Amino acid sequence: MWKVFDIERLKAKVAGSEPSFFEFLRSSQMSCAVYRLPAGSRDMQAPHLEDELYMVLEGKARVRVDNEVQEVGPGTLLFIRATTEHSFFDIESDLTLLATFGPTAE
To answer: Of 45, 42, 40, whose CA–CA distance to 80 is shortest?
Structure first.
């Protein structure tokens, strides 16, 4: 089985002035979502039980993973291991991310 998604339609699901998360796919081995953090907002997420892969679709910010900081922008791809502390901050322009989550860590 397969599915096709239009990224512009997915981004429209998270449009607005508040942080927003829209999960559009869930299977036994993975899930995918679009996550949007408007400029100046705070990322309030906690570590997840799944490995994560983020692709920055638009915007500019910094991300803290454990004690390391990295600037991110369109095209940046981030892998974050399950249970790792991380958050986006200094969000200069609306940040839209494609988030893919792997199976729950054992």
So the answer is: 45
Q: How many domains does the chain divide into?
A: 1
Residue 29 DSSP code: S
CA 80-32-18 angle, to 5 degrees, is 85
Cα torsion 16, 5, 45, 73 to 10°: value is -80
Listed in sequence order, the residues at least 6 apart from 97 whose beta carbon sits closer than 8 Å to its beta carbon are 34, 35, 36, 37, 54, 55, 56, 57, 88
Domain assignment of residue 46, given as a range: 27-104
* 16 belongs to a structural domain: no
Q: Residue 19 falls within a domain, yes or no? A: no
pLDDT in tens, the chain (106 residues): 899 999 999 999 999 999 999 999 999 899 999 999 999 999 998 898 999 999 999 999 999 999 999 999 999 999 999 999 999 999 999 999 999 999 876 6
pTM value is: 0.91
